[in-house]
Amino acid sequence: MQQRYDIREEEDGMWTVFDIFTGLPAEVNGEILIGLDIQEADDAVDLMNAIDLKRRGEIE
What we know:
By secondary structure, the chain is an alpha+beta fold.
């Protein structure tokens, strides 16, 4: 099971959730997931990966 999203620390010390296939920041409801603290980014990446796995039918 390959996860689609990961997090990376930016130069300013904040975190971005990004799509590992495109390298672009992830987006939810029009909000780009950049400038997050580590806890927000970690929670968001877990949620984004769960949604993606469900969409692909890999979890119920």
